[in-house]
Write a structure and sequence with these properties.
By secondary structure, the protein is mostly beta strands. The chain contains 2 helices and 16 strands. The protein is globular and about 50 Å long.
Length: 278
């Protein structure tokens, strides 16, 4: 178990800092479940947030993660907390929205490299959240669309959002994140749009969840136990598959689960199960 956990810790940050370019996800919005796209609940995007300028790391239909600047600072959140319990037929997450790891300094510091492209004026704020998810979710006959805002919760206490910003662009490519690939939105919710290198330490093994989506299915990291990177080619139209998951220490079950990947849509493309009310 310790060897698997160490492997994930080593593999995940390497994936996060891979110099290979990634295809830009702008416009990959679908009206139905399709691999490599997001079956979005809304097709119109109001804009009004996110990056205000395209960075030089976006070019020729691709973006280069290692060329994108990072939000400066290292801010700790000692009051952060997260508790996960099974209560009857529900998996209950109680948290206060503060991450159990460091973040960058928000609002983004004027004059910094990040501020040149993204002036994110938002602050990370606490709020009590009780998320009641099905402990044993069942797949829908037809997958459900993915909304904007919270679509799941990571075991770091941070929210998981879909792959788009408010302008319908590829959020990880356009927006500037911090050392943990996260940032706050206008309501103060700190969240990820893609894999965070800071999430690896919250998984018991490479086969264990790093979070739970609102339909109750787990989401795992981008590296398998043997260190192999998971790609879109391994996953279905919702960005998941059926396989063995260590849902609790020492308890393994064969179940549907999602995977983070380096490739768009990064988290999920649709809900395989019925999402709980946010």
């Amino acid at each position: 178990m310790r060897a698997l956990a160490l492997l994930l810790l080593l593999a995940a940050p390497a994936l996060a800092h891979d110099p290979r370019p990634l295809p830009l996800g702008d416009g990959r919005i679908s009206a139905e479940p399709r691999p490599g796209q997001v079956f979005a609940c809304r097709r119109d995007f109001p804009g009004g947030g996110g990056a205000h300028a395209a960075g030089p790391w976006i070019r020729d239909g691709h973006w280069y993660p290692t060329e994108r600047p990072q939000v400066e600072g290292r801010v700790a959140w000692p009051a952060a907390r997260l508790e996960v319990t099974i209560e009857g037929a529900e998996r209950v997450l109680r948290l206060n929205r503060l991450p159990l790891h460091e973040t960058g300094e928000y609002p983004i510091r004027p004059g910094s490299a990040a501020h040149r492209y993204d002036r994110n004026p938002n602050r990370v704020t606490a709020a009590e959240v009780v998320a009641r998810l099905p402990a044993e979710p069942t797949p829908l006959t037809q997958p459900a669309c993915v909304p904007m805002g919270v679509i799941g919760w990571a075991l770091s206490g941070a929210a998981i959002f879909n792959a788009f910003d408010l302008a319908g662009r590829d959020a990880p490519a356009w927006e500037i994140q911090d050392l943990c690939n996260g940032h706050p939105e206008r309501g103060g919710v700190y969240h990820y749009h893609d894999w965070s290198p800071c999430l690896a330490r919250f998984a018991a093994s490479a086969d264990a969840p790093v979070g739970w989506m609102l339909d109750g299915f787990p989401i795992l990291g981008p590296a398998e136990a043997a260190g192999r990177e998971v790609t879109n080619a391994d996953l279905d139209e919702c960005h998941g598959r059926v396989g063995e998951v260590e849902v609790a220490p020492g308890r393994r079950v064969t179940t549907y689960h999602y995977r983070f990947t380096r490739e768009f849509p990064y988290t999920i493309g649709c809900f395989r199960g019925a999402p709980a009310r946010r």
